[in-house]
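Q: I'm writing up a methods section and want to include an example of the input and output format. Could you take the sequence below and give the corresponding predicted structure tokens, formatted cleanly so I can copy it straight into the document?
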Amino acid sequence: MWFVSCEILDPRFDEESPGLVFSPKKTELSLNDSAIISLNAFGVDSIASLQATIIYDPSSLKVLNVNQGEFFFDSGAAPIFVFDNDIKGELHIYVVFLGDKMSVEGLGVIANIEFSPIKNGSHIFTISEDSYMLDSFAEEVELESFGNGLIVVK
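A: Here is the clean output for your methods example:
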């Protein structure tokens, strides 16, 4: 398994505008390896819940594991973190606080996703524009950036 660390933000993104991106954006590995890719939020204010959908080609990539990142723990409370990968090619991640006045802001890692390649080549995964965040008043926060990532297998 490889854990790859690099800059969270793509230079095209405005850190002040709410969005979701992957880190690293590009990873190279061999067929028998796996890579941990972080799903990151940035430019958010008073976020109390999130639903993110990651789209990938199930004939090229397999999701091995998903772990909660530290971002929602910055509030001092433990959120509910759930994911499902029941629909082929879609990974759904849900994070929610139960209770009033619990929220997070800024930027940070929402989840760490371990992908394993199934075949050689270049494999793209994206954050669906159906993904959304709600603020502490249950109002939807308009996301302006939805990232994508690339795993290159040689």
